Amino acid sequence: MAKTKELSKDTRNKIVDLHQAGKTESAIGKQLGLKKSTVGAIIRKWKTYKTTDNLPRSGAPRKISPRGVKMITRTVSKNPRTTWGDLVNDLQRAATKVTKPTISNTLRRQGLKSCSARRVPLLKPVHVQARLKFAREHLDDPEEDWENVIWSDETKIELFGKNSTRRVWRTKNAELHPKNTIPTVKHGVETSCFGAVFLHGLIRVKERMNGAMYREILIENLLPSARALKMKRGWVFQHDNDPKHTARATKEWLRKKHFKVLEWPSQSPDLNPIENLWRELKFRVAQQQPQNITVLEEICMEEWAKIPATVCENLVKTYRKCLTSVIANKGYITKY
Predict the structure, then answer these.
(1) What does the alpha-carbon distance between residue 296 and residue 280 come to, in Å, rounded to a whole number?
(2) Cβ distance 335 to 270 under 8 Å?
(3) Are residues 144 and 190 in the same domain?
(4) Cα 272 from Cα 285, distance rounded (Å)
(5) What are the beta bridge partners of residue 153?
(6) Domain of residue 35, residue span
(7) Is there a single domain that holds both residue 237 and residue 102?
(8) Same domain assignment for residues 42 and 140
């Protein structure tokens, strides 16, 4: 049964005034558009307590004392990865026996919720400073400059994804705070590139990629991609600082071909707009639930080709917001 709306204090006082003026409960109900039983309840309450204000409601006392609430709140604030079991044991040592749902409800009232920890790249102080430097140096670059960049990246698309997660206690919108994340090291088996107008160049890598294999991909695809994307003169190539990309032979090949390379801060997938395309592709692929590697590859190629060119255009147009977010987050990972 739905909960009825509580009468305002003015309405309750008006009921009492009409009652004192000699009107019956039925007459008051008709005049105010209320049920007779509601009017009667307000009048009886006034006669008994001489007030129409809400009275303290009875109910079971909180199982966790205010001191206990402070204790577990302080614990999860210091260490967001504290488990329910740890908190149950802490309270038990303080002579308070509670269940996991009770702890969860208590912390939720404090604005803390158990959530899956976000996996983010491991950032050392040198990475944070490099990211800030990159964002500040390019913050005022015109939109046309970003339209003339060929972005590239590798990712791993698995047939059966891993579902192992770790949970943390955190407040709303704090998922990217370093204490609430799981640092990871990147590795990937597919590569692609895109420009501001057209998607291009999804390539399956069947073996573990090495420097020679990466250079072969560049030799066969980089210049054709630039032509297909109709890049303007002086276009810039972007890739991250994976050892395959920064190998002396790779750098030498890029230099001999006179390709400009964007200086890139390590551990910065959130600065690469292609990560948004990977997320879109993986979502589309997961919906089709491929059952073998051959079908997985076919679906990847088909769905990649279906991503609208406008998606890329919007990612490039809003790139300044990405840089602003990095600066606002003091160099740490941002949403993308």
Answers:
(1) 15
(2) yes
(3) yes
(4) 21
(5) 192
(6) 9-49
(7) no
(8) no
The pair of structure tokens assigned to 115 is 């959530």
Q: Say how far apart CA 300 and CA 203 lie, in whole Å.
A: 10
Q: Which two tokens stand for residue 239?
A: 């890739």
* Tally of structural domains, the chain: 3
The residue that leads in pLDDT, 154 or 3, is 154
Q: Which residues lie across from 65 on neighbouring strands?
A: none
Structural Rg of the chain based on CA atoms: 31
Does a structural domain hold residue 57? no
More confident residue, 199 or 229: 229
Q: What is the 3 state secondary structure string of the chain?
A: CCCCCCCCHHHHHHHHHHHHCCCCHHHHHHHHCCCHHHHHHHHHHHHHHCCCCCCCCCCCCCCCCHHHHHHHHHHHHHCCCCCHHHHHHHHHHCCCCCCHHHHHHHHHHCCCEEEECEEEECCCHHHHHHHHHHHHHHCCCCHHHHHCEEEEEEECCCCCCCCCCCEEEECCCCCCCHHHEEEECCCCCEEEEECCCCEEEEEECCCCCCHHHHHHHHHHHHHHHHHHCCCCCCCEEECCCCHHHHCHHHHHHHHHCCCEECCCCCCCHHHCCHHHHHHHHHHHHHHHCCCCHHHHHHHHHHHHHHCCHHHHHHHHHCHHHHHHHHHHCCCCCCCC
Same domain membership, residue 71 and residue 136 = no
Residues 100 and 186 occupy one common structural domain: no
Q: In which band, very low, low, confident or very high, does the pLDDT at 139 lie, cut at 50, 70 and 90?
A: very high
Do 163 and 283 belong together in one domain?
yes
User: Positive or negative CA dihedral for 78, 84, 86, 89?
Assistant: positive
For the chain, what is the mean pLDDT? Answer: 84
Q: Tens digits of per-residue pLDDT, 21-61?
A: 999 999 999 999 999 999 999 999 888 888 888 776 666 67
| CATH code of residue 323 | 3.30.420.10
Q: Does residue 140 lie in a domain region?
A: yes
The tally of CA atoms less than 13 A away on the side-chain side of residue 172 is 4
- Taking phi over 0 as left and psi of -120 to 50 as alpha, with beta for the rest, 272 belongs to beta
Give the pLDDT confidence of 198-210 residue by residue, as tens digits: 446 688 887 788 8
